[in-house]
Amino acid sequence: MAKLSILRYPDPRLHTVAKPVTVVDDRIRTLADDMLELMYQADGVGLAATQVDVHERLIVIDTSEGRDDPRVLINPELIARSEEMTFADEGCLSVPAIYDKVQRHAQVTVRALGRDGLPYQFDAEGLLSVCVQHEMDHLMGKVFVEYLSSLKRDRIKTKMLKKTRDEQKS
Ligand code: GNR
Ligand code: NI
Prior knowledge:
With 170 residues, the chain is of the alpha+beta class. The protein is 29% helix and 26% strand. The protein has a five-stranded antiparallel beta sheet. A two-stranded antiparallel ribbon has the order 4-5. The longest helix is centred in the C-terminal third of the chain and has 20 residues, at 150-169. The protein binds ligand GNR and nickel (II) ion (NI). Nickel (II) ion (NI) is lined by residues 92-94, 134, 138.
């Protein structure tokens, strides 16, 4: 597969709804490994396939301090969400250098297929919980800035377009 790169907001491809993975084969495993490598390179805690222009339900996450706990989630589902919410700063590799607060469920229970194609589940809270919800939004074509006011979102859009234009010039 060609080298992966991360789509940048407001690229319309970020709004594509991903399809379920039908078989966990070597193609999917290689994609997961390449996405993990890219996520570590970019210093992110998560990456959704949508961000690399692959529209299948696959995400990778590592919220550990030591950056030594890679998680692969294929066809992830939230099987429980806490009523309690949290409101914490988020960033996104597709919207570099922009951080703002988003409301999320404080705790979630996630069910997914792993890299081995076998189902597993786990409870998440804190950054892991936020990250899972952020990545699952990507798979639905949603970027976190869509939770912000239209005023903020328009400013971010303008800033991103300018930044991308400036980078192309130099
Ligand atoms: O690296 C990332 N950090 C982050 C911080 C707070 C909430 C969510 C995230 S996810 C983000 C990586 C990314 O863009 N994943 O889609
Ligand atoms: Ni993101």
